[in-house]
Amino acid sequence: MADIDPLRLGYATAIILGVILAALALLCKSVKHTEQKLNPKAFGFAAAVVSGAAMMILGVLGELGLYESGVKMMEQWHVFFSTSALGIIFGTIETAVVFFLLGYAFAAAYNKFA
User: Fold this and answer.
1) Are 37 and 86 spatial neighbours (Cβ–Cβ below 8 Å)?
2) Distance in angstroms (rounded) separating the CA atoms of residues 73 and 3
3) DSSP tag of 41
4) E strands present in the chain
């Protein structure tokens, strides 16, 4: 298998995540024709749960010897993540905190400019 450039993969992931968040925001806005606001706290918690679950699944798959390239990238990007039990737990917490903050900031910015 060819080596994947981590920087390009990071950019692609950020773009995909941005498109998903924008689509969710548009979907929430288009439900009714009245002005709607996103709940930043709820949006942040939703982002934290989804990202934490993804990190936990990635850690378990890494422990099983699957998806090793993704595990290596996460070990490089996240301070507390590793394939040990504590590494998976702390990596999941780290990811959840970061994505809560990003989701909260996104929803707050959306509400400000919508």
Assistant:
1) no
2) 12
3) H
4) none
Q: How far is CA 7 from CA 4, 29, 33, 56, in A?
A: 9, 33, 40, 22
Q: Where are the domains of the chain?
A: 6-113
**Residue 54 in tokens:** 């993804």
Report the chain's mean pLDDT, rounded to a whole number.
Answer: 82
Tokens 């998976």 belong to 88
DSSP 8-class letter at 64:
T
Q: Would you place residue 32 in the very low, low, confident or very high pLDDT band (cuts 50, 70, 90)?
A: low
Single pTM value for the model: 0.67
CA distance 1 to 15: 24
Residue type, 109: A
> Burial letters for 96-114: b for 16+ Cβ neighbours within 10 Å, e otherwise?
bebbbebbbebbbebeeee
The mean pLDDT of 33-51, rounded to a whole number, is 86
